[in-house]
Automatic annotation (TrEMBL), chain A:
Pfam families: ABC_tran. This is ABC transporter ATP-binding protein. Keywords: ATP-binding, Nucleotide-binding, Transport. It comes from the Bacteria.
Automatic annotation (TrEMBL), chain B:
Residues 22-293 form the MacB-like periplasmic core domain. It is found in: Cell membrane. Keywords: Cell membrane, Membrane, Transmembrane, Transmembrane helix. GO terms for cellular component: plasma membrane. This is ABC transporter permease. Pfam families: FtsX, MacB_PCD. Residues 146-167, 417-429 have a biased composition (Gly residues). Its main location: membrane. It is a multi-pass membrane protein. GO terms for molecular function: transmembrane transporter activity. Belongs to the ABC-4 integral membrane protein family. InterPro entries: ABC3_permease_C (IPR003838), MacB_PCD (IPR025857), Macrolide_Exporter_MacB (IPR050250). The chain crosses the membrane at residues 16-37, 327-349, 377-401, 450-470.
Length: 230, 485
């Protein structure tokens, strides 16, 4: 369970101080599906970074299962990320020189998984996202949708508790977008994941059980009773 | 994963890797070339000094220079002018100790007794000038005065230009060097820099025998061979061996037993040079001081002293290699390191998202840094291998071309005699103090040089990688998201 209390984030841009987040309080239960929406520069990605332990708040606390990520040492925070948090990026962020299977393996390297087991788990993860036949291809030999599937396999191969997605369908066409969202929905159901996604897409936001709208660093959470599964 | 990632990254960024490697390779090749050429020059200098001293000689002892009387060292020749129809040939030769300075033979034993001296051998260096031909009186009534004299070889050897006034002359001048050597101790001294290639060398029993060993070049010029005789100041010596200098030029044209040389020069119990071998080659300077302190009136010259007097193209090139070459190597190497570091750093900047993603996935900073250093290290190894190959190639070319360098040893203070009247004045002064030797330059590459090059390549790779890795380690995982936000 996530519990954000009074989270603020400020940073300097030249002489100007930018208030990316202003005293945000937010609770996300295990297994929740939360969509964060808002205008560009509103603080969506900054909030996702705080939740993912990729950055530290200027003030406030970000607790994951009772542990304040803001207070952890860099080494411990890295360990939390490597074991508990899977991340999917808008631009897939695959290592261009590595094959699909090797890219998935990179998520298991920090966990100290032995090479043979690593290869087997990566292959299994790729088969689960429908890329069993393409695991030896490098990213440039794959379509955008296939690359995002590799990124999903990489995020899930370590069996995380939380899956974070930053505009996962931002670079995909409409048909592929629906395929990817259907896949994510299936995976979240299967693994019982807490799923937090940042998106610009209003259609996707409308389907979310919980919608966090962020504007000028302040967040408003809406429960959408009539929502359907993502 | 480390090796797979490393291999894939290097193969993907072949051009960038090649640029970094080539930069390092050039620097390393230059270091190898300069080091090997420099080493070749040192070898050439050693070779030059050995040819002058003889193998195994650490220093020589000579008499301290004294002011010479104006006439004592100059050769005098006396010829009688004959009548017009006379064709009788006349011959006269002069034998002088080279430099005109000698030491008592007892000094050899004195030097040998000094602390740190392993062996000491005396030798007497002689310059012989022989003039023979016909000399006729001039005719007072003749309208065409004589002047048919021909200069002989002596002119080039420091002898006076023959000139005859008032008469006619046809003569030949032959100037050559003779060394009287200690036949009981041939391992040290002037003959030790030569190898007897035909016939035999002296034996201990031949300490006063009329036998000679002739330098091969001189023997060829004078058509001398084993069994023939060579005449020095009317004394006939049987040639028992032909010697060839093992490096550079030979010490003398003819070698004879020391006692015979002393008799020829009327210098009984005198030597011109004492050749000294030290017990410990690291203590030469101390031995020099001991000899100079304990044996007065002597000058001790070590290889190091002699090396200071080397001039000519060899000296110039050596100075060039040790000064300009060294700094050029350092500058190019530093530039190569800097370029490698900047290119690696630039490559890291282009991979912000990649390294940020890995950190977001849970890779520790150290692991990312090791990956960058690993890639750079391999670039260094490739650069080192290329640099060593290039350097070896350059050294091979230098050795194959073998450019000839001239080394001039000592001061050139020989006094040349001018044309005289009926007799010939002038002659060699301290001619033995000056010598020009030609040596072929090589560029030997030692294992130490290759190890140095490999070390530099690895250092270059690590420096560049360390710089790039440091930048990568400072990268925050949030950058992976921000770069696409």
């Amino acid at each position: 369970m996530y519990k954000l209390t009074g989270v603020s984030k400020q940073y300097s841009r030249g002489k100007e101080t930018v208030h990316a987040l202003r005293s945000i309080d937010l609770v996300i239960e295990d297994g929740d599906q939360l969509v964060i929406q808002g205008p560009t520069g509103g603080g969506k990605s900054t909030l996702l970074q705080m939740i993912g332990g990729l950055d530290r708040p200027t003030s406030g606390s970000v607790e994951l299962d009772g542990t304040d990520l803001a207070q952890l040492s860099e080494a411990k925070l890295t360990k939390v990320r490597s074991e508990n948090i899977g991340i999917i990026f808008q631009s897939f962020n695959l290592i261009p020189t590595l094959t699909a299977q090797e890219n998935v393996e990179t998520a298991l390297v920090p966990m100290g998984v032995k090479p043979a087991e690593r290869r087997e788990r990566a292959a299994e993860a790729l088969r689960s996202v429908g890329l069993g036949e393409r695991m030896h291809h490098v990213p440039t030999e794959l379509s955008g949708g296939q690359q995002q599937r590799v990124a999903i396999a990489r995020a899930l191969v370590k069996k995380p508790k939380v899956l974070l997605a930053d505009e996962p369908t931002g670079n995909l066409d409409e048909g592929t977008r629906d395929d990817i969202m259907a896949l994510l929905d299936t995976m979240c159901q299967e693994y019982g994941l807490t799923f937090i996604m940042v998106t610009h897409d209003s259609a996707l936001a409308a389907k979310a059980p919980r919608l966090a709208t962020i504007r000028a660093g302040r967040v408003t959470v809406t429960e959408q009773a009539q929502s359907v599964r993502l | 994963m480390f090796l797979i990632y490393l291999r894939r990254e290097l193969s993907r960024r072949k051009k960038a890797a090649l640029v970094i490697s080539m930069g390092l390779a050039l620097g390393i090749a230059l270091v190898i070339t300069v080091t090997s050429v420099s080493s070749g020059m040192k070898q050439a200098q050693t070779q030059v000094l050995k040819s002058l001293y003889g193998i195994g000689t650490d220093m020589t002892v000579t008499k301290a220079a004294e002011a010479q009387s104006s006439s004592s060292a100059r050769p005098k020749f006396n010829f009688d002018a004959k009548s017009d129809d006379s064709s009788t040939s006349q011959s006269s030769d002069r034998v002088m100790t080279a430099g005109g300075q000698t030491l008592a033979s007892t000094k050899v034993a004195d030097v040998a007794k000094q602390t740190g001296v392993s062996n000491a051998v005396g030798a007497l260096s002689l310059n012989v000038m022989k003039v023979d031909g016909t000399f006729t009186q001039g005719k007072a009534k003749s309208t065409t005065s004589g002047g048919t004299g021909e200069g002989g070889q002596g002119g080039g050897q420091g002898g006076g230009q023959p000139g005859v006034q008032g008469g006619g002359a046809s003569f030949d001048v032959n100037s050559y060097t003779v060394y009287g050597v200690d036949t009981a101790n041939l391992t040290l001294g002037p003959l030790s820099s030569s190898k007897v290639t035909t016939g035999a060398t002296f034996t201990s029993a031949q300490s006063n025998a009329k036998v000679a060993v002739v330098d091969s070049a001189y023997a060829k010029t004078k058509s001398l061979s084993v069994g023939k005789t060579v005449t020095i100041k009317s004394v006939k010596y049987t040639v028992i061996g032909i010697s060839t200098a093992t490096s550079g030029d030979s010490a003398a044209n003819i070698y004879i037993p020391l006692k015979q040389a002393q008799t020829l020069a009327s210098s009984a119990n005198k030597v011109s040079t004492i050749y000294v071998k030290a017990t410990d080659s690291q203590q030469i300077s101390a031995v020099k001081s001991t000899i100079q302190k304990n044996i007065s009136g002597t000058t001790v010259t070590t290889s190091a002293d002699l090396a200071k007097t080397v001039s000519g193209s060899l000296s110039t090139a050596t100075k060039l290699a040790t000064s300009v070459g060294k700094w050029l190597s350092v500058a190019v190497l530093l530039a190569a390191f800097l370029v490698a570091a900047l290119l690696t750093s630039s490559a890291v900047s282009r991979r912000v998202r990649e390294f940020g993603t890995l950190k977001a996935l849970g890779w520790k900073s150290g692991k990312v840094t090791r990956q960058v250093i690993g890639e750079s290290f391999v670039n260094g190894l490739i650069g080192g291998a290329l640099g060593i190959a290039l350097g070896l190639g350059a050294a091979y070319v230098v050795t194959a071309i073998s450019p000839t360098m001239t080394a001039e040893l000592g001061s050139t203070t020989s006094s040349a005699g001018g044309p005289g009247g009926g007799g010939m004045g002038g002659g060699p002064g301290r001619q033995a103090a000056s010598k020009a030797i030609e040596v072929a330059l090589s560029a030997p590459v030692s294992l130490t040089t290759i190890a140095l090059a490999a070390g530099l390549a690895i250092a270059g790779g690590l420096i560049a990688g360390g710089f790039g890795g440091w930048r990568a380690s400072r990268m925050r995982p949030a950058d992976a998201l921000r770069s696409v936000a």
